[in-house]
Amino acid sequence: MRTLKLLFAAVLAFVAVAFVAPGSHAAEGKYVALGDSYTVAVGTNTYDNPDDACRRGPTSYTRLWAAAHPNVGFVEAACSGATTADVMNTQVGQLTADTSLVTLQIGGNDVGFVDVLKNCILTADDADCLAGVEAAKAAATNQLSPQLSKTYAAVRAAAPSAKVIVVGYPRLYTIGGDCGILGLSDKERTALNSAADTLAEIMSARSKEAGFTFLDARPVFDPHTICSGNSEWVTSLEWEKLNESYHPNVEGHRDGYLAALNPLMG
Asked: Which string of DSSP letters, residue by residue, matches 173-224?
C-alpha cells in the first residue's frame, strides 16, 4: 500500500510540472537587450526617469517587443552612452545560461560618433568635419573591429544557447533631398553616411564570424532618413536638446527597428 501511495504522489508531481493551470503563464525563454542609446529611448523624449543616465523608456524597440511577448522574461541591460567595454564589464553579466534571445547594438560610441556629429554641426568648415569622419572610420577599422570580436565572444560564452541578433545603425541623410543648403552641406551629409556604411560593414563581418544574425538598418531607414521628404524616423538637430539629436524617434523604433526585427526574433 505504501508503494502505491508513493507512486501516486510521483504521478501527481509529474502532472503538476507538466501542465500549467488555466490563467497562468509559463515562461517561454529569456530575452536580454544589450546596447547603447540607440537601444534605449534616446530620441523618443519619453523616459521612465528623465534623470536616469541610461535614459530607458517604454517606446524603445526592445520594450515594444517585450510588451508584445509577455511570456518571455525580459532584462533591459542597455544604457545610453555604452561602449563595447561597458557591455563586457556591466551588461554581459546579466546574461545567463538560460537566455534564449539577445539583441546587441553597440559600436557608435567606441569611435566617438557623437563627437564627430557635434563637430560637423558646430564647425563651418567642411574639411574639418570630413577629417573627423575619416578619423572615426579609421578607429572603427583598427580599434572597434577587434573589440567587437571580443564582445561577441563574451556574449556567446555567457549565453551559449541564445539566438543573438546584432542590430546596426542607419544612415542619417538622404543626399540631394529636401533639406536644401541650410545646416550641413551635402558633402558633410555624405561623409556621415559613409561612417554608417563603415560601421555596418564591420559589424556584419564580425557578426558572421561569431555565428550571429546581423540586422542592417540602412535599407530599413533609408526611405525615412533626414531630408527624405517622407516621415522621418531619425531625429534631426535639436539645439535645445542636443542629446536627443540623430537618434531613432518613436516611429523609428516601432516602424523601423521593431518591424524589421520581428521576423528575426520570432
From this structure: B-TTSTTTTSSS-HHHHHHHHHHHHHHHHHHHHHHHHHT-EEE-HHHHHGGG
